[in-house]
Every structure is written in structure tokens, then in C-alpha cells.
Design goal:
Blueprint: H1 3-17, E1 18-21, E2 24-31, H2 36-49, E3 53-61, E4 64-71, H3 73-79, H4 83-91, E5 97-100, E6 104-108, H5 115-125
Parallel strand pairs: 2-3
Antiparallel strand pairs: 1-2, 3-4, 4-6, 5-6
């Protein structure tokens, strides 16, 4: 799995999952990688390319799910969104936990069966 594939995966995420909630660009979807380092790279790349970004990326490596939440700094300030709180809430669905900063946080878990529920719940965060 090389750099080019990570870039291709990022492009796929944007083309398939980018949607708008008000003025917020949301990208909520599964990431197909074999190493979670790529998910971090993709998340930071997306933040640099998309304004008003709210992204929730879920990857599974070796049957272990991981959630990454990335939020543009201005949304943290303006909307009071907190990636660390959001990721902890979503991680319950994969029987896991995590944390991080208010703009970037990750969580790992043990229950792959919760992945679809994580994606569904992530979509509801901005609509509540």
C-alpha cells in the first residue's frame, strides 16, 4: 500500500462521501487501508483541502476498527464541535475508546460489527 493508493483513497472519499450540511463540508465514510497511519495522513490532507470540514473516517485493519474524526479549526470555535468528545461517543459502537484534540481525535475498538452504526451516528451529529 503506497502513497499513491492513499491519495486515490482520499479522492474516492471526496467523490463518494462529500456532502454539505449548511455550510459544513462533511465526509463520512469507510477508508480502505491496511495501515492506520494512512488514515491520519488522509484526514490531515482533507483538512488542508476542504474548508469547514467535518470528517469521520472509519477503517478496519486486522479485524480492528478505528475511527478518525477531523474538524476544521473554525468549526471547533464557531460550532463548539469537539472531535475528542465525538470520537469517544462513536467508539461505544465498536466497543472501544479513544481521544485526542478538539480538532483531531481517534479511537480504536474491537467490534467490527459496529462500523455501520458509527457511520450512521456520525451522520446524525450535525443534524441534531
Amino acid at each position: 500500500f503506497e502513497q499513491a493508493q492513499a491519495q486515490a483513497e482520499k479522492q474516492r472519499l471526496v467523490s463518494e462521501n462529500l456532502s454539505k450540511v449548511g455550510n459544513i463540508n462533511t465526509i463520512i465514510g469507510k477508508v480502505n487501508v491496511n495501515n492506520f497511519d494512512y488514515v491520519k495522513q488522509i484526514a490531515f490532507d482533507l483538512r488542508n483541502q476542504q474548508e469547514n470540514l467535518f470528517a469521520v473516517l472509519v477503517g478496519v485493519v486486522n479485524e480492528k476498527p478505528q475511527i478518525t474524526v477531523m474538524i476544521s479549526e473554525n468549526l471547533v470555535t464557531e460550532k463548539g464541535l469537539d472531535a475528542s468528545k465525538i470520537v469517544k461517543e462513536l467508539a461505544k459502537e465498536i466497543k472501544g475508546g479513544g481521544g485526542g484534540q478538539n480538532f483531531y481525535a481517534t479511537a480504536g475498538g474491537s467490534d467490527v460489527n459496529g462500523v455501520e452504526k458509527v457511520l450512521k451516528n456520525a451522520k446524525e451529529i450535525l443534524n441534531s
